[in-house]
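debug: dumping io for the single-chain case to check the tokenizer round-trip. Nothing else runs in this session.
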Amino acid sequence: MALRLSDQVAIGQLQPGEYVSKLLPIRMGNSLPIAYGGCTASIAVSAACASAPEGLSLYSVLGHFLGPASTDQKLYCSVTNNRDTRSFATRRVQVKQKQKDGQFRVCMELIADFHAPEPSTLVYSAPPLSNWPRPDDCSTTREHAEVLRARGEITQEQLKDFANSFGVSESFFETKHCVNGVAGQNLAGAAKNIITTQDDRHITAKTSAEWQRTREKLASPAQNLAALSFLMDGALSFLPLTHHHLWFDDVAACSTLDFALRIFTAEVKLDAWHLRERTTSCGGSGRTFSEGKLWDEKGNMVASMSQQSILRMKKGFQPSKI
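debug: decoded output
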């Protein structure tokens, strides 16, 4: 596992339009040796940025996961230049992994769009849905987990399960949990039996939020954008579990199918505190739709990511009604 986020999202160029990840992808939020989707997306964004003209800013990333990526093979990216004008550039990125027979299997495709700077006309930004505490008033992941354990609200086994699933994120990001959010009270759902202060709300009205910042100062805009895609993917596919007293032991499949990352500023600096708020708005036909939004400390919306994900319950398991 990489000790630094900048190494985890780094790529090397093999030839024009062809790139490879510096490190193997990591696992997070999955007990199987399947790569974290945000890790795959961050490598694709790194490749898109490496091939884009100078002076243009990434503003849109639309992607589809075509199959799970393994944690035992590096990620290869093929970049196609779809558009280059004075104002816009578009890159199509195909992410692949080498199989035992030497053939490549595609695991993701995305379209990344870049825009040249233009003067602002209408300037506005919606606030978060809830009134969240400031970072200094929130607990770190470890502190919050220990409080839950001391209260007897989470078992040592549940704490270990959470650490095994998401502990790697702590190597890259400092996280402060907003305990008035659902995930801040039930440790992202690991303590699924905890009754939260939002249990009287419909699942579509429940919210979770955290303050997060990178543990290192990232050196370039491309590194910050790759880190942004890594961060924003986290905890969205299983947010419906977190908000409905469910955990990974209740499901047979829970992973992202497609995503849309929108970036609203030309400069992203993730070593400063950012608030990420998450909601889920629709579920049915074996799929869910959830969204995360990111604000800086001044209340400016920086980015949003929406995802449609597959959700299959274990055979015979019937969740409670919403």
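debug: round-trip ok. The chain has a mean pLDDT of 93.
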